[in-house]
Design brief:
The protein has 322 residues and is an alpha/beta fold. The protein has ten helices and 14 strands. Strands 5-4-1-8-9-10-11-12-13-14 form a ten-stranded mixed beta sheet, with helices on both faces. It has a four-stranded mixed beta sheet with strand order 3-2-6-7. The longest helix has 15 residues.
């Protein structure tokens, strides 16, 4: 199957990522944020961004066979594709009428505070979001994993992920979903291999305060009873839990000095999916996730984790039965 421009070829990869709200992530710094004055910025970094694209970047760095599917429009969409190509990530773009968005992160040098600005994205027509769906489910070779990560843009119904989940199950492909509550709830009835909320998202998903580890595990198992096989719950610098119907594992966060928090969750998920695809055990997949999430905060802006740092930090991660 061929998509809408000369860069696309038949999709063949063990892991496909889908990003419906991609962006170019711009990061820079200023000495001090203040109103009215012109603020002279430091060096600018531009990275291809959006949940699934970030996941694909991490999987590629770790040596995984991955391709990224995403809509792209206008000059920014063309630059997004160029930036992904420069990192060696195979792109399969769906052309859209509106311009792809940008996000930007500014670090204030005085207090090392990080400010993240998320711009509104384009609205997708029905034809455009259906083309994104077809690009994934109509891939020439059945992938082992589909990772759908990021929010749904305007114009895309929450039912999108339910259809994706149903199709993935019919093809024997494992769906990993990292998105907002409406999208997750719509897909539950069809079955999801893995979800990765952070604690704030998990509380919103369950509509409960969920204060203790016991409550987190119990809530995760209520979701498992409804159609999720595994829940990876990230807890920021406190670490993460990986929960199945029968077992649960916990790994503490590593004591690293954070430069930027951007992309830590995507790095965690990318490394975990890579590890599962490579045949590692669930506890080892959690170890890789913690190592990658910790490695990501060592890097500036939206550069994500490096494979070298992941392998170095992996030796420091300890996983215990929860």
């Amino acid at each position: 199957m061929r998509l809408g421009n000369r860069h696309n070829a038949e999709i063949m990869a063990r892991i496909l990522t889908l990003t419906l709200s991609p962006a170019i992530d711009v990061s820079t710094s200023v000495e001090r944020l203040m109103p009215v004055h012109k603020l002279r910025c430091g060096p600018v970094r531009r990275d291809p961004g959006g949940g699934g694209i970030n996941v694909a970047r991490v999987i590629h760095r770790l040596g995984g066979d991955v391709a990224a599917v995403y809509p792209a429009g206008g000059l920014i969409g063309a630059l997004l594709h160029k930036l992904a190509d420069a990192e060696g990530v195979r792109s399969h773009t769906v052309p859209i009428a509106e311009e792809t968005r940008e996000n930007f992160t500014v670090v204030e040098g005085v207090g090392s505070q990080e400010y993240r600005f998320v711009l509104p994205g384009p609205q997708l027509s029905e034809g455009e979001w259906r083309a994104c769906l077809e690009a994934v489910v109509g891939a020439g070779e059945r992938p082992d994993f589909i990772v759908a990560s990021g929010s749904l843009p305007r114009g895309v119904p929450a039912e999108f992920f339910r259809v994706l989940a149903k199709t993935a199950k019919g093809r024997g492909t494992k769906l990993v979903l990292d998105s907002t509550k409406p999208a997750l709830m719509a897909a539950l009835e069809e079955g999801i291999h893995l979800i990765k909320p952070n604690l704030r998202e998990f509380r919103e998903l369950m509509d409960e305060p969920l204060m203790s580890r016991r409550e987190w595990i119990d809530a995760a198992r209520r979701l498992i009873a409804r159609g999720v096989e595994r829940v990876a719950l990230t807890l920021g610098d406190r670490g993460a839990l990986l929960i199945t119907r029968e077992e649960a594992w916990f790994a503490e966060g590593l004591p690293v000095k954070a430069i930027s928090s951007v992309g830590a969750g995507d790095s965690f998920l990318g490394a975990m999916v890579w590890a599962l695809s490579a045949g590692h055990s669930l506890p080892d997949a959690l170890r890789y996730g913690i190592a990658a999430g910790s490695a990501a905060v060592l890097a500036p802006g939206t550069s994500l984790c490096s494979a070298h740092d992941v392998k170095r930090l992996l030796q420091e991660v300890e996983v215990e039965q929860a």
